[in-house]
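dumping the sequnces here before i forget
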Amino acid sequence: MPRLTDKARYWMLVLPALAIMIVFYILPVLGIWEISVTEPDLGFGNYVKMTESNAVKTSFILTFRVAAITTVGCLLLGYIVAYTISNFASRVTPLMVALVLLPFWVSVLIRSFSWIVLLGRSGLVNDTLRDLELITRPLRLMHNEFGVLVSMIHVMLPFAVLPMLANMRGISPSYTDAARGLGASEWTAFRSVYFPQTLPGVFSGALLVFVLSLGFFVTPALLGGGRVLMISEYITYQIQEFLAWGLGSALSVALLVATALVLLVAARFMNLKSALLDRH
Amino acid sequence: MKISAFRIFFNTGAWLVLAFLVLPLLVVVPVSLTDTSYIGMPKEHLSLQHYESYFTSPEWLHATWTSIWVGLAVAAAATVLGTAFSIGCWFISSRAATIARWVLITPILVPPVVQSLGFYRFWVKLDLIDTYFGVILAHTLLALPYVSISVFAALANLDPRIPQAARSLGASVWQTVVEVIVPAVRPGMLTGAVFAFIVSFDEIVGVLFLTVRRVNTLPKVIWEGIQENIDPTIASVSTFLVIISLVATAIVALRRKTA
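..and the predicted 3d for all of it:
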């Protein structure tokens, strides 16, 4: 038996997972590209159909809008939490961290169900408002963009908080203290000394939330009630209702390319390796 | 010290956001105790009928059991594969190893519907549709990134001179990995295994594409329940899952405090 070099031995540890990933994940995902140009006919017919369809255009615009609003919402709300946890240390800080982590352990399905219970026509919010005689007819709180946004922000918020928290933990308080000592107000010290240092965390959080939101399926499908067709739901719709595998695959390719473009643009502004590979 | 408006803004803001995160999870508790046959608050009195219907329903119990054992199988497979992978990459630490790590985390970035489509077509060819093995395989692929990230985080704290010392004292690569590295990264492996279990236990889109009638996981039954008729049994199941999550979070938080 030939003697293996150490390097070869290390590769033998790497290979099983890598091989399974390439054969059963990467190849099937690449197979979608093939379907998109072979079904029903050979050629780019599906892509032509896709670019000519107004419904597809509407769905893409909606998807990007929902993802963008979700990202901004998560950053604003998440920043407040991350800042408070890392700067106003007190006995309740561990509790605050636990409350951020708790939703992570609860299934996205359950969380969407909770929002359906809250926002439905005869949901808790509408019932309460009616009992208080503030409204006579139930408000439409779900099966529209509002409901989708509220629950998406709820689901994505921890993904924004955690990278910001990791980043803020590494910021030394001495710079802000120095600014304060030199007479800057609390607000000025925050804005011109602290905030710029938190941008890497903000960008990581934004990237993660935006990319995950682009392809999100469960919450929009349940809270949108078929009226807020984000691109993922549009794809399943094409495949399950019309058996339009070719068009569905072409849309999937477009979604993949869009996601890749977002990552490429992000790579110009931030270190993707530290944001994605070296998380936690 | 005078409490500034700045501080008040962040503190109250943070608690409001945390309330927004946590309170909606709790609404399932009163709803699960409703005495009505539809989703809503209890009208006349509290009732355990929807818990009873969960515990007497073969469909719900079977799906719960399926999700648990599939999740355990996924956690075992993903932890073994992912740990070996990360340790190998850590030793190699070249450009090729970095590319391999990017390949392994793609499932986090690829939209669920897109990857499920890919799975479906390939699983049809392999005759894995509606089989437990097919679901376990798909979930293992989706769980691998989380294991690899957790183990890598644990390896980041390991001094590379320690395995070097083991090697120079005559330990083989295999001995070094098993007796030096694995014990050192055990916390990362445990985190990875828990993540892998949760990924599998929660996964819905792949299951919707890959299973028909024979394989039913808990998320699938919940999904169908929400889509077809909103039955308060879902609220009872949700209450269980929320309580388990609360307990798990409390244990983790307490352990961190004592550690």
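Chain B has twelve helices and no strands.
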